[in-house]
Records
---
Amino acid sequence: MTILEKYDDLDEEAQEVYPYRDFPSLDEAQLQAFEQSNGILLPPELREILLEGNGGYIKEEFLRCDDEDPDLLTGIQEVFGISNDPDHWMCSIVPLPKWVTFKHEIYTSFPTVSELESINGPISRYFVISGDGVVFHLLDYTASESSKAVCYLDLVGGDQKIIRLGDGIASVIQIER
């Protein structure tokens, strides 16, 4: 059973809310090249999603959260894919500082990288896997090249602290086997 919702299967309202992401399929060699160039190892569950559809919209029944505040997952409607196209970087898995810098250049009220680092410590080893430009879901590679945690960050609301949601991608997405 697939965990991805195909764009054509979304209702008309959802198609307006969640724009189409037309990323080409990936193979194992492309995943390994991405990992090598970023010095990370993607979690097996995320690799499965990327090989299935290079990211996509997650069916609601597959979402879960081990955290005490399930509202923290409100923004995880899709998992970003991998693309080298500069026009698609905003819906691609990228290091968090790229997003933060981009948002601050457009909206000076958004925090800078150094402001976020004063709250959270170095952020260069967090990778954005989902988000809407304000709220992000991240993989935490601060301790090692293998992600051990999925985190949440709201750049506008709250105290801008990176909040740990659970261990690995399987803590927020239930993948049927």
Note: The first strand starts at residue 4 and ends at 5.
---
Amino acid sequence: MQFQRQRSQRCRSNENLITDKIYRQIIAIRDSGACNMFDLPRVQEEAYKMGFYELVVFLNEHKKEYAEFILTGKR
């Protein structure tokens, strides 16, 4: 029971990790067609080239959440 409580609290704290700004940056890279969105090093490179430094940091810290967003579209 305690594990479930901790897990649900952690899930709630992870809500909104993908802010509107990060979302717009991901979509801009996707729409550019410059790289495969699952190729994280290339996505980071494109983000850096486009001045999306917040996204570069986000991808370093939240790979799992990014992959889940790319697969499901859920923020």
Note: DSSP finds five helices and no strands in the chain.
---
Amino acid sequence: MQQAQPAEQPEPAEHVWFSKAFLDVGTERRRQIEAEGFDYQHDDAHDKGEMAFAGIAYLMAAVNPNAAYAWWPWSLEWFKPGSIRRMLVKAAALIIAEIERRDRAEIRP
């Protein structure tokens, strides 16, 4: 009696560094700057972690909507939840904005 051979496993797909998700986050960050007017000068004025908190609020809205509002640092009229994916994209873009702000603050004399 012949023993069954294990099924061949497909090779893992090569990681795509510029996935749709990655590009969408960059597009959202650009939209925040160009369409909303939240440029570097605007962001630099929020030096108490507000953009990070806003990112957390959108992340929470995606996974636990009841907890999201407690994290929102600004007037609720600016909080615009949407689909889960859209909120995750906004969260990532806001976290990037916070990282960029901190990077700029480090290089200022």
Note: The longest helix spans residues 84-107.
---
Amino acid sequence: MCHETVKYTGEPFVDAGVAVMEHHLGKPCEDFKPEDLEKAARWLIKIYERKSLKGYLTIHFPNSGWCNATISKEKKAEYINKVLQAYNFEPISGRECVYCHRPAQFLADRQHIPMLTGASTIITSPGGVPGLPVCGYCLMAIQFYPLATLKCQGKPLFWWTPEPDLTYSLTGEYFREIEKLIDGGSDKLPNLSWPKTILLDTAQKVLASYGDDKPLADCIGLHVTNYGAGPDYHQYRLPKELLEFLKLVRVKDEAVRSAHTHIIETAWVKDKNNKKQAKSQEKETPSRRNKYFEALVEVFEQANWSEKTKEIVHNFYFHKKPETFQYNNFALCKLFLEKVAGMDKQRLETIKRTADQVTNTLIIGNNETKWLNSLFNHEHSFSEFMRYLIRVQKRLAEKGQVLSLDDILIMLDLSNEEDTVSKDFSLVRDLFLIRMLELVGKNRKDMLNELELTSNTDAN
């Protein structure tokens, strides 16, 4: 039976370190042997001697033996032996590791594990001895975690998920970046900006090669340090639903993929001087941000994020300029709203069917462009939109087509005809227009000329 060593525990710092060790050793942690741990330890000691990493380690392990230039060689060697070899120490009687629940072998503080307080500031603890009880294996794994991070706005940025395969894949992106910088002989690690953009851009890249047989899960981007006067902690959540959407887009038809790629590519903007950056803060490396990525991550910081995601459709999926009409794609919106916003499938299908009915029967079928023009340029309030639907209902009836009251109630998410307000009628209006523009653009592009002239006049 193989002796259990380091392992995923569900704790971010431990799991990030385990992932780094797996990447370096080229095998899963379940297969680690004592000689593997010794090999990894020797490599880490050598790597942490690099000038580019010594300063960076200060924001991970303040005043530790890894980065404190004032301590003697003997004390440094003693520190390194403790954090990398504590799994050889005798267990502490009656104490278990807070991470894996194996017998504890060490009592740690902020110089050994991030986000803890200093040993000298603890005034009481079990048995009168301060420190967090950990086993030697978890303590060792944590020492590798800095190599799973990027420096962003002066703080480490790294990944955690409850699925080890996904943690491994996401961590690998940053680990390889760190390796490139070290191998390139850089004296200092770049201090990046726009953490939300970095995280979602990384997720996009990983999902491109992440196997269909591998599980997805909610992801957390951690942006943390306790360097300085107090702890600085922030986490960005990327829910499983968003990852599923991003992965599914890649296997949809060309029109859907093209529409989504256009949204991403046109959302990139050059980074300007960050006015919020304090004068005393280290200068950030110029980088780009993506307005779409930033907006998506910001949505998931809201308590009612499933509702807030619907705003993404208006801001990014609804293309209102004539030169981008071609990128309006209802299938993309439907996929996003179903997977991410949790919108009812029947409701979305009813919206599409009704928009198709109006477009094919009245606009394309009978050259009545007013139904597109008026909705595009007017009908912005709920009452206006309701009057529009009533006029459409009457006109369709004249053409022998039926738009039932039940369909209108389903589209607007109303329980009965006495309801006077639809909380997201503007989303329905946007979806109507997205589908209309898509169909007209495919079948009667000439009909968009009048709409183009009107929209240009309004813009001027």
Note: The radius of gyration is 28 Å.
